[in-house]
Design brief:
The protein is of the alpha+beta class. It has 22 helices and 22 strands. The protein folds into five domains: 116 residues, Beta-Lactamase; 104 residues, 2-Layer Sandwich (Beta-Lactamase), CATH 3.30.450.20; 74 residues; 159 residues, Histidine kinase-like ATPase, C-terminal domain (Heat Shock Protein 90); 124 residues, Rossmann fold (3-Layer(aba) Sandwich), CATH 3.40.50.2300. It holds the Pfam family HisKA.
């Protein structure tokens, strides 16, 4: 800026000296008085065309603020610098960094000298970089694999959205920390040594290929993961990018597949043995019958009949083995399962005794399935006896019949079941429950936790075989101290006789929403399906793997409209979480879900107004239940 007055001659000399630069001289009224050759090349107008024009009109200037405000700043401060938009003679737009400087001529006239620099190309490059960065961020925010970038010291430089969800740390918490925080011992202590060794020697352990390792979440839980690491060197700086895939679901599916294959092998073995044993029993029983016809002495006949009774027991035992091995001949026909249970309930109650209350929940319409009536009755009786034995001090047994539709999302979590319509028979007791170890072996033939002589260990295995042979499915849910639910899925017999308006309503388009739902589920597969369904319905979703993380999400101030939580979770269960949420955030609606037919562990919260949704559920059932809760007035019981 020139701080003293100059003459017109001096101004002309200055303009000629900087003729190659992009200088424009104009008054506060904007009328152009000087226009250099540099401006002619930049804008396309000659000096004769430009001089006398109002500069802002000629160049169609786009200011970052009101032009009068800028002129006031120039008068007060003597200069102004900023970025504006200009138009060339050919119509092209330019990004210009301009500096305005006040110039005094020694008389009342005051001029402004514009010094303009074309930054259009730089602006385009910056815009492209921002666009690419936004595109990259959108990819990283949506891919299921987590991405973590570290420097050569092992410090985290980037932490994707998927990494936040997987490990439980926010990007703000993770960036700048050593990546070993995501590893359990002894990998945590050894990591920096591995990294240092690679940088010094080039000896690779993980870099360049993937391997299965163990990850450590913020809440202290570990999980299997596949880690692939890539290396990049730019500007003398070395970075490592790790892609992490959670293998929890895959390992669980593989374990279920191995268990299924094991049960298949055991079934083939037991079926074969039972078939051969039946042949032996046929020989023994036949000869005993012939001997009985020839003996006349009462004492000998008594011994013979005892032997015949033992042979009959053996035949029944082999029949159960054949059922498990799926070699028992069935006589399937269309059955109204609701009617069958109504007829059969008296026998079940007599089997249970006076100390166990029997509760049956039967829909008021026909529920048809293709099944062997005798085998289904036997299966229900076996499940009832098992439930009775699990309640030595008495309790309640609930048998519920319902219609369900398994979609591809749910079937994807359980390879043994196919999508379709099923009659679901849920048998729930309030007994002692099972440990995870017992649950893993519950369907194995001859496995029992009962005292010696109190059972063969074939009850559940027979039901398992019956379900498989009937093209159905069997699921087991149990919690120590809470009870057990066995769920028998039998394919629906679609004859058209069991249609009902409620079922048509269930097939209607699910209800949509825009509220924020906090999903709390420790099973990663179930959580992914639930979140996917909610997003499809239009809801915003926040995920948590346990009760502690769910409370932290609420404490963070998220505008959560509804808590959708599993009941059976490690640590803080869904009932305890619901109670804390109800006390601290009373306006947050609560929907609890579980594989149990009855909400034993959450009865108080259900009574306090929480909703209940039994697994498995369809997207339509879930959306309907959500809207009932969200649309209800605060404090009303939506049940």
């Amino acid at each position: 800026m020139l701080e003293h007055a100059i003459s017109e001659t001096d101004l002309d000399r200055i303009v000629r000296m900087f003729d190659g630069s992009n200088l424009i001289v104009h008054g506060f009224d904007g009328v152009i008085q000087r226009w250099t050759s540099g401006c002619e090349q930049l804008y396309g107008w000659s000096a004769s065309e430009a001089v006398g024009k109002v500069v802002h009109d000629l160049l169609d200037t786009r200011f970052p603020a009101d032009v009068e405000e800028l002129r006031t700043e120039v008068r007060n401060n003597g200069s102004w610098t900023g970025q504006v938009g200009h138009r060339r003679k050919d119509g092209a737009r330019l990004a210009i960094v301009t500096r305005w400087t006040v110039l005094e001529l020694g008389d009342p006239d005051t001029l402004i000298v514009q010094s303009n620099n074309d930054v259009t190309l730089m602006q385009q490059v910056e815009d492209e970089l921002r666009e690419r960065q936004a595109h990259l961020q959108s990819i990283l925010a949506t891919v299921p694999d987590a991405m973590i970038v570290i420097d050569d010291k092992g410090c985290i430089a980037s932490f994707s959205t998927a990494a936040e969800q997987l490990f439980g740390y926010s990007a703000h918490e993770a960036i700048g920390q050593n990546v070993s925080m995501l590893m359990p011992s002894p990998d945590r202590e050894a990591h920096d040594g591995y990294l240092d060794s690679y940088i010094r020697t080039g000896r690779r352990r993980i870099i360049g290929y993937g391997r299965v390792v163990v990850g450590l979440r913020k809440n202290g839980t570990t999980f299997p993961m596949e880690l692939s690491v890539g290396e990049a060197v730019a500007g003398g700086r070395r970075t490592f990018t790790g892609f992490v895939r959670d293998l929890t679901s895959r390992h669980r599916i593989e374990a279920e597949l191995r268990q299924s294959q094991k049960m298949e092998a055991v079934g083939q073995l037991t079926g074969g043995l039972a078939h051969d044993f039946n042949n032996l029993l046929a020989v023994i029983s036949g000869n005993l019958e012939m001997l009985e016809a020839r003996l006349a002495e009462p004492g000998q006949l008594s011994l013979l009949r005892e032997a015949q009774s033992a042979a009959d027991d053996g035949a029944r035992l082999t029949s159960q083995l054949l059922a498990f091995g799926r070699r028992q001949a069935l006589a399937p026909k269309e059955l109204d399962v609701s009617a069958l249970l109504g007829e059969f309930s008296d026998l079940v109650q007599r089997t249970l005794g006076d100390s166990v209350e029997l509760r049956t929940i039967i829909p008021g319409r026909r529920m048809s399935a293709m099944a062997d009536k005798a085998q289904l009755q036997s299966a229900l009786l076996n499940l009832s006896i098992n439930a009775r034995d699990a309640m030595p001090a008495g309790g309640r047994l609930t048998i519920e019949i319902s219609g369900v539709e398994i979609d591809s999302d749910y079937a994807g979590m359980y390879p043994a079941i196919r999508p379709g319509r099923y009659v679901l028979i849920s048998v729930t007791d309030t007994g002692t429950g099972m440990t995870s170890e017992v649950m893993e072996r519950a369907f194995e033939p001859f496995f029992t936790t009962k005292p010696t002589g109190s059972g063969t260990g074939l009850g559940l295995s027979m039901v398992y075989g019956f379900a498989k042979q009937s093209a159905g499915h069997l699921q087991l849910y149990s919690e120590l101290g809470e009870g057990t639910t066995v769920r028998l899925f039998l394919p629906r017999a679609d004859t058209g006789k069991d249609s009902h308006p409620d079922e048509q309503q269930a097939k209607d388009a699910p209800s949509l929403g825009t509220e924020t739902i906090l999903v709390v589920e420790d099973d990663a597969r179930v959580r992914r399906v639930t979140v996917g369904r909610l997003l499809t319905l239009g809801y915003s979703v926040i995920e948590a793997t346990n009760g502690i993380d769910a409370l932290k999400e609420l404490e963070a101030g998220h505008d959560v409209a509804l808590l959708f939580s599993d009941v059976a979770m490690p640590g803080m269960n869904g009932d305890e979480l619901a109670r804390k949420v109800r006390e601290r955030w009373p306006r947050v609606k609560i929907l609890l879900t579980s594989g149990f037919s009855e909400p034993h562990a959450a009865e108080k919260e259900i009574q306090a107004g929480a909703g209940w949704l039994k697994k498995p559920y369809t997207a339509s059932e879930m959306s309907t239940r959500l809207r009932l809760l969200l649309d209800a007035r605060h404090g009303c019981d939506p049940a």
